[in-house]
Amino acid sequence: MEPVGEHLLRELAPQVLGAVVRRYGDFAAAEDAVQEALLVAATKWPDEGVPDNPRAWLIQVAARRMTDHLRAEIARRRRETAVVMEEPDEPIAPALDGDHEPEQDDTLLLLFMCCHPALTRPSAIALTLRAVGGLTTAEIARAFLVPEVTMAQRISRAKQLIKKSGEGFRIPDQREREDRLETVLHVLYLIFNEGYATSSGSTLHRVDLSNEAIRLARAVQQALPADGEVAGLLALMLLTDARRAARSGPEGELIPLDEQDRALWDRAAIDEGVALLGRAVARGAIGSYQLQAAIAAVHDQASRPEDTDWPQILALYELLLRMSDNPMVTLNHAIAAAMVQGPQKGLELLQPLDEDPRLAGHHRLAAVRAHLFEKAGDYEAAIAHYRAAATKTASVPEKNYLLMKAAKLSLTVRVGT
Amino acid sequence: MKFMLMMNAPRGTGDWSIMNWAPDELKAHIRFMRQFAADLKNEGSFVAAEGLAAPAQARIVRAGKGGAPEVTDGPFAEAKEFLAGYWIVDVETPEQAYAFAARVSAAPGRGGKPMNMPIEVREVMSAPPVDA
Description:
- Chain A is mainly α.
- Helices cover 71% and strands 0% of the residues of chain A.
- Chain A is elongated, with a radius of gyration of 25 Å.
- By secondary structure, chain B is of the alpha+beta class.
- The two termini of chain B are 17 Å apart.
């Protein structure tokens, strides 16, 4: 099928699924029905042309499959009266579209469902990518480097858990929506990070998780245009993704922010992120995603590393520290403080982290320390900490980067064997 | 036939003194390993490859009271040998697996000279033969 039709189907699929699930409540059966409808579309539309209202067409076909399935289930298992009563005898499509509900609402509903509190984050991520992202199980498995059968099981168990929770796929009330939205944003954030972190090196057959996360964040933002944190998250993704091309070298080596070729940064993405952030912040009530986006924006707006407005970044980290006790924030704050008040200040700020069990043995603490010692001119200490960090990291490009830093400094110092 | 090629970290600290290499030596080693993996793929033999975290990160786990994990960390007095990483290759003969192992054993180290690391090669168990 030609690309335009495929793209359309992919975009409509979650909306159709959301509508069918909202109507019938059986997630797994709805998925099957929608898959069948998509197959029919893929077969018929190239010959017959795309219908005037493709979404309604798909909903209608999927709904018919659902009623067929339900009739079979009823005949076999004596379902509750409620379902029998609800069984429609005319085409569903007009009624569902009759409310003129924004299409994004169904995508949002699906996202709320997939980010069910009973699920672990990895399960929520897998289910989200499958049901809302429309990725195949094989694609998701490849993206997370696990066997397909493992990923299929993960997704299947997630669906069972949701079903067992008896939630019934109703629209969550206002308070539930707020809680659930937080999970949705976190899941999207994790998907983005997974995509971004693994974007260096060979990615030939891996689906672009970062783009997927951005696409879904856009959908949420369009459905909830007044929400500052939703806009903040999308802005953060855009402002971070803008640097992707400069992040790794030709041999897959990691290139830190202050050494990146800024000509490779995506200016359009930066402009969009900054604009989005500006509008969000103007509405007041600034949250942590907006703050993180603001920090990324300050970095991205510096044409050279030496033009970076570090005092502004430091102020933003100070705000972020007040709303988060995440040790990574403390680490980043220490770096910013070092840039403004000197490396000794940064090193002082790191000391309390030695007592933090969440950071014990974490490579980043050693890496940041090494970096600050280097800036302070204490090369021997820097080398020792770079090497310590290298033995603690679980990332090969990171390990290579840290070893290389130690080796280069050693050369400068000539500390011998 | 599938074989696992295992690279073990030296006994004791698990350190090949890679820590003390010059930047050029390190670069050459990294590049070599990257190329080896690419070659395996290009030659149609690659099944899997993983690097493992440093031996200092290793934990030995036994079932303790009531099946709860009993976790011990190092240093491990018996100076156990630790796996640094492995490749799994799909080849027609054991000799082909040995050839790959010899290639990776010659990874450059100090002064750009081949390290001649000992690589353990063992067949990965597979399905029984059809005529069994």
